[in-house]
Design brief:
The complex is a heterodimer of chains A (108) and B (122). Chain A has no helices and eleven strands. Chain A has 108 residues and is mainly beta. The mean pLDDT of chain B is 97. Helices cover 0% and strands 50% of the residues of chain B. The chains are: A mainly beta (108), B mainly beta (122).
Chain lengths: 108, 122
């Protein structure tokens, strides 16, 4: 099983700040990595797939990078609607499909 | 538009059974691989089970293997999860989710239902 490790667990930031979230995998997943956004009380939404392709409906301030075992999600200028939990997920090696434990982005 | 609507959750005693359903619409259901993913209240996401587009191939997380059975009825655009021998650690919101491209396995989940809550408690 591929273990996903996200850091930090919680990030306290102010609106307008640049945010960088990290996801590491226990073995290479090539570029088969996705990021999901889950706002409070809502269902997870696919945000990034293929490590760097933004899903429909998300603005350009969201970007993903990385390959192999190290990945990054960057939000260039945090908006109020971006406060949420972000999960990474690998879909390279299965079963199981595995998720990170999440990074909560909260208001400072 | 794509819609996934789960139902069947509720309160059940340890050792009991429950059957979840997911009604799909807005896409050609029979073309897509589907999964169940769960989330304990306040916790992270855990993939539970997968079924191929024709229902012939299924996979399970170790935590539910031998207790849960996934199936689908393509004629009714429906995904099912039969859950037996339920335990307290099965308490979670259960989401059905679709792989984002038809007939492709190495894909993320692009549409999720709103979830149905299963509570296992005496």
């Amino acid at each position: 099983e591929i273990v996903m490790t996200q850091s930090p667990a919680t990030l306290s930031v102010s609106p307008g700040e640049r945010v960088t979230l990290s996801c590491r995998t226990s073995q290479s997943v090539n570029s088969n990595l996705a990021w999901y956004q889950q706002r409070p009380g809502q269902t997870p939404r696919l945000l990034i797939y293929g490590a760097s392709t933004r899903a429909a409906g998300f603005p350009a301030r969201f970007s993903g990078s990385g390959s192999g075992t190290e990945f990054t999600l960057t939000i260039s200028s945090l908006q109020s609607e971006d406060f949420a939990i972000y999960y990474c997920q690998q879909y390279n090696t299965w079963p199981p499909w595995t998720f990170g434990q999440g990074t909560k982005v909260e208001i400072k | 538009q794509v819609q996934l609507v789960e139902s069947g959750g509720g309160l059940v005693k340890p050792g009991g059974s429950l059957r979840l359903s997911c009604a799909a619409s807005g896409f050609i259901f029979s073309d897509y691989y589907m999964s169940w993913i769960r989330q304990a209240p306040g916790k992270g996401l855990e993939w539970v089970s997968y079924v191929s587009s024709n229902g012939q191939s299924v996979l399970y997380a170790d935590s539910v293997k031998g207790r849960f059975t996934i199936s689908r009825d393509n004629a009714k655009n429906s995904l099912l999860l039969q859950m037996n021998s339920l335990r307290s650690d099965d308490t979670a919101f259960y989401y059905c989710a679709r792989a984002d491209r038809p007939q492709q396995l190495l894909r993320p989940f692009d549409y999720w239902g709103q979830g149905t809550l299963v509570t296992v408690s005496s």
